[in-house]
Design a protein that fits this description.
It is a single chain. The protein is α+β, with helices and mostly antiparallel strands. It contains seven helices and five strands. It has two domains: 64 residues; 80 residues, Glutaredoxin (3-Layer(aba) Sandwich), CATH 3.40.30. A five-stranded mixed sheet has the order 2-3-1-4-5, with helices on one face. Strand 2 and strand 3 form a beta hairpin. The longest helix has 12 residues. It starts with 13 loop residues before the first helix and ends in a 7-residue tail after the last helix. The N terminus is likely disordered. Bound molecules: FE2/S2 (inorganic) cluster. FE2/S2 (inorganic) cluster binds next to helix 5.
């Protein structure tokens, strides 16, 4: 499986990946979601070019495929940054400073305050909101390149981010 931080220009041909997902998963009931996951796992995102192929394979309209893509925040339509920082904005974390942590993350990482997440212009990092990382008892929580961290203070956030290549200082 490609790491979540993989860039599209390091991945196999996009349409080949989509066709592979269709060929191997079409037999499943409710195959659209498994296909979308398979494509994103390999490419780091679900390219626009996947939509007509998936729609045709599953006898769905393009609008239906788009609807599923936009409903689940997990799916990205463009390549992610080289690092992925997720900040939990669910209830338990909100009660313990998650919104301040989110604001700090937007400013420090140079990412837009967007509820769907955003990628810095230079592609160094993608900042995503998440809604529970399973660390509610140690909130506020965040994840850096899929490694989760609890009790994240402002200082700890800075240390975690500053340890990432491309995001020092
Ligand atoms: S609410 Fe943030 S980890 Fe569960």
């Amino acid at each position: 499986m490609t790491s979540p931080g993989a860039r599209a220009d390091q991945t196999p041909d996009e349409l080949t990946v989509v066709r592979d997902a269709i060929a191997t998963l079409a037999h499943l009931p409710g195959a659209l979601l498994p296909m979308l996951h398979a494509v994103q796992d390999r490419l780091g995102h679900v390219p626009e070019a996947a939509v007509p192929l998936l729609a045709e394979a599953l006898n769905l309209s393009r609008a239906e495929v788009h609807g599923v893509l936009s409903y689940y925040h997990h799916f990205r339509s463009s390549p992610p940054g080289r690092h992925i920082v997720q900040v939990c904005r669910a209830e338990a974390c909100q009660a313990r400073g998650a919104e301040a942590l989110w604001a700090q993350a937007c400013e420090r990482l140079g990412c837009a305050d967007d509820r769907h997440g955003s990628t810095r212009a230079d592609g160094a990092v993608t900042l995503l909101p998440v809604y529970c990382l399973g660390l509610c008892a140690s909130s506020p929580a965040m994840a850096v390149d899929e490694r989760v961290h609890g009790r994240v203070s402002a200082e700890r956030f800075e240390r975690l981010v500053a340890s990432l290549p491309g995001l020092e200082g």
